Amino acid sequence: MSHPEVHGVVVLARNGDRAEAWQDPVSYKTGSTTSTPLGEVQSHQLGAFLRKTYLDSSSSSHIRGIATDLVDLKEVHVRVKVGGEGSSVFDSATAVLQGLFPPNEKNRMTLANETTVVAPLGGYQYIPVETVEPVNDRSLEPWTDCPAFQERVKKIHASEDFKKKNQDAQKFFHTLKDFVFGRPTTLENMYNLYDYVSSELVHNKTYAHRLPPTYIEQARGLADWRENAIFGDSQMNGLGNIASRAALSSILKALQRIAFDDDPLQFMLIETTYQPFISLFHQTQMVKRHPELKAIPDYGSALAIELRRAPPPDAREFLRFKFRNGTNSDFDTVHVFDHHEDIPLTEFIYRLENSVINSNAEWARACRASSATSWFGLSQGEDGRATGTFMDMVLGMGLFFLVMLLAWSGSKAVQRYRRRAHIRLPNEEAPIAEVVNYGSNEKSRFTHSF
């Protein structure tokens, strides 16, 4: 009996190890941080693992027809969250791509004078990425600047379950004080406590020798409990699932593109932080059969969503979900919506489509925000019309008149400057927010609406 072929994969990956990153317990605004060599190694290992799984022709999960030695940029697309923890997430994406498409001496060209030039570092492959900034695209960081989400966090902190958990942890918090050096030892601040302890345990030899046994496990358990409460929701379209509800916009559109034979896309990487994993595990009901997923995924974790096509005469598309927690394990197959096997693509979309957040305007409505950030420093209300403060309008009008002045002047100096500064994008006649560098404009309905 023939087995379904893998036609493409969407991979949700968490960044690798980084320096401590404090985040506000209510707004979830994150301080600055940097990736570490360990984190880059973890992400590179993930890329090499994905290459072995999906690009090796001897693998049972090999993607049918995908270019393996030299990357075909029409077949691969990468989206990277560059809001909170942005630099470490971006570095992690770069390292994943280095492992996925390592240097290859075939990455060369012959010039007109018959000189052969090999790309630097033995044929390094430069793969462009789409950076996703929350200032104009909420798809990979919808939980910040969200009034309704902050209200949810405060309600959880005030709940009886939270108060009981906090009370039960008082003995641990008392003993932990000597190891967190002035940081508030409360359940509200638990993620930051765990982040500090785990970071020092890995990077600080003196600290690692002093930390008593079980402290990291207790800190991890409390942090898992809190983040699961914040980013998990029993209602599919609940605010607790906002992280995955927004990320699914990119995921579903990529899966539809992969399923469309005339679209070249076959591999999509979404590099992000831990929050969308927890929400997606709840939103798709994976946690019912896999309660161990009610936790913060380790650095370098990945969730792969494989699109598999059954052999004729069926020829339907099915999805298989595989999760890898950290870098020291293989993929484990996990199931969504109480399925005991692969789920049809059509059913998966049908179940989720009414809960997905597809635009900044939808995000603003879900967050009960008065506006959604748009271009030129103005704002976009729920009805899509521009709104904003007086200074926003002044800045916007100033930029408008500056552009008009440059266009009117028509001087050769200005024209030369514009030619140097302008980067042409695919489908440039379309609104900027809808342009996606996919190398195909035949399926505009699959472009991003953020």
Automatic annotation (TrEMBL):
Keyword Transmembrane helix (UniProt): yes
SUPFAM superfamilies named among the record's database cross-references: Phosphoglycerate mutase-like (SSF53254)
Q: Does the keyword Acetylation apply?
A: no
User: Which residue windows are transmembrane per the record?
Assistant: 390-410
Which keywords does this chain's UniProt record carry? Answer: Membrane, Transmembrane, Transmembrane helix
Give GO MF terms, alphabetically. phosphatase activity
InterPro entries, per database record: His_Pase_clade-2, His_PPase_superfam, Histidine_acid_phosphatase
Matching entries from Gene3D superfamilies are given as: Phosphoglycerate mutase-like (3.40.50.1240)
Family to which the UniProt record says this protein belongs: Belongs to the histidine acid phosphatase family.
Which PANTHER family does this entry report, sorted A to Z? ACID PHOSPHATASE-RELATED, PHOSPHOGLYCERATE MUTASE-LIKE PROTEIN
- Protein name, UniProt field: Phosphoglycerate mutase-like protein
Instruction: Specify the species.
Output: Steccherinum ochraceum
Q: Lineage of this protein's species?
A: Eukaryota, Fungi, Dikarya, Basidiomycota, Agaricomycotina
